[in-house]
Design goal:
This protein is of the alpha+beta class and 140 residues long. The chain has helices spanning 10-14, 53-60, 95-104; strands at 19-24, 30-35, 38-39, 44-49, 63-70, 73-89, 116-130, 133-139. The longest helix has 10 residues, at 95-104. It is built from three helices and eight strands, in the order αββββαββαββ. It starts with 9 loop residues before the first helix and ends with a strand. Strands 1, 2, 3, 4, 5, 6, 7 and 8 form an eight-stranded antiparallel β-sheet that branches.
Length: 140
């Protein structure tokens, strides 16, 4: 079941901000990476490769946490807890990745298109923080 983000924090999902995607390593330890993302109003999507540790992490344990800070106010952020519902190959031209490049204003050759995958995360819980305190929670 999915939940909806608090309305006053949706801007953090719609803007081309950096997200910290935390996964669980097979040994139980955490791994966090700064990532580009896409939000379609229901799910978050990330690009990655099938040759890196994060790919192995989500294959082993699909639960993830995502944190997106407001660059204009570092005391305002949104935490999303959910699970990776799909890992699909990007097409041969890495079209999803290219779309993220355009969203973030950074276009360059994609040398690893053959191993690019799209990680789809279904949010299950949102925690919105402002001024150092929780201002909204949304559970599925």
């Amino acid at each position: 079941m999915t939940s909806q983000p608090p309305a006053e924090f949706v801007d953090l999902l719609e803007r081309p901000l950096f997200a910290h995607l935390a996964t669980v390593r097979p040994d139980g330890g955490p791994q966090s990476s700064v990532m580009w993302f896409d939000w379609d109003g229901a799910v978050l999507r990330f690009t990655h490769t099938s040759t890196r540790q994060k790919y192995r992490n989500v294959a082993h344990e699909p639960r993830v946490a995502v944190s997106i800070a407001d660059p204009d106010n570092p005391y305002r952020y949104l935490e999303i807890r959910g699970r990776v519902s799909a890992v699909e190959p990007d097409d041969e031209r890495a079209s999803f990745y290219r779309g993220l490049q355009e969203r973030y204003g950074r276009t360059y050759p994609i040398s690893d298109a053959a191993v690019r995958v799209i990680l789809t995360v279904i949010p299950e819980r949102y925690v919105a923080v402002a001024g150092g305190g929780v201002v909204a929670r949304s559970d599925g």
